[in-house]
Design goal:
InterPro entries: PH1570-like_domain (IPR023110), PH1570-like_sf (IPR036807). With 159 residues, the protein is of the alpha+beta class. A hairpin with a 4-residue loop joins strand 3 and strand 4. It has a nine-stranded antiparallel beta sheet with strand order 1-2-3-4-9-8-7-6-5, sandwiched between helices. It folds into two domains: 68 residues, PH1570-like (PH1570-like fold, 3-Layer(aba) Sandwich), CATH 3.40.1600.10; 81 residues, PH1570-like (PH1570-like fold, 3-Layer(aba) Sandwich). The protein has five helices and nine strands; from the N terminus they run E-E-E-E-H-H-E-H-H-E-E-E-E-H. It starts with a strand and ends in an 8-residue tail after the last helix. It is globular and about 50 Å long.
Length: 159
């Protein structure tokens, strides 16, 4: 569904021609996180009152999310100093359990990813993906999107 001249929303993500950004998720539902990202991207253009692309995406996905429920936070994680076989096995198991196309899974370079520990799970942070041990795989087209996604990772805790 086209929500803005260059913003296309689809079942598991969005593509934006204005920002040259594509973000998709696989595994557990991460649409609230994507809504937060869309709102932040378009907030400067629309202002606080009514961010049309955000409202359009909410309607398409059938999600009620009040802008006041969106909370940006600095992610609270610590680096994993020693990445041993056990850590890699946990991440590989998570990736294998997520329902994603084979070409997406094959493009995930876990061995090159930065691995960090959240309170309850591991995260693998690649230049174009975030794999969350809680069952989320988020892939994106620009490395700069990683920090924006991490900022709203707490939105996944509510799922």
């Amino acid at each position: 569904m086209l929500c803005e001249e260059k913003l296309e929303i689809f079942e598991n993500g969005f593509e934006d021609g204005k920002f040259k950004l594509r973000i998709e998720y696989y595994g557990k539902d991460a649409r609230k996180l994507l809504l937060a990202v869309i709102r932040e991207l378009y907030l400067p253009d629309y202002g606080e009152d009514y961010v049309y692309p955000f409202e359009c995406a909410k309607e398409f996905w059938g999600i009620y999310l009040d802008p006041g429920e969106i909370v940006a936070e600095k992610p609270d994680f610590s680096p994993v100093k020693f990445i041993n076989r056990s850590v890699m096995n946990r991440l590989e198991k998570t990736l294998n359990e997520i329902d994603a196309p084979a070409e997406i899974k094959e493009s995930i370079g876990l061995e090159k990813a930065e691995v960090v520990k959240l309170k309850r799970a591991l995260l693998a942070l690649g230049k174009d993906f975030i794999l969350d041990e809680r069952g989320y795989l988020i892939v994106f087209s620009k490395p700069s999107a990683r920090e924006l996604i991490l900022k709203y990772l707490g939105m996944l805790d509510e799922e």
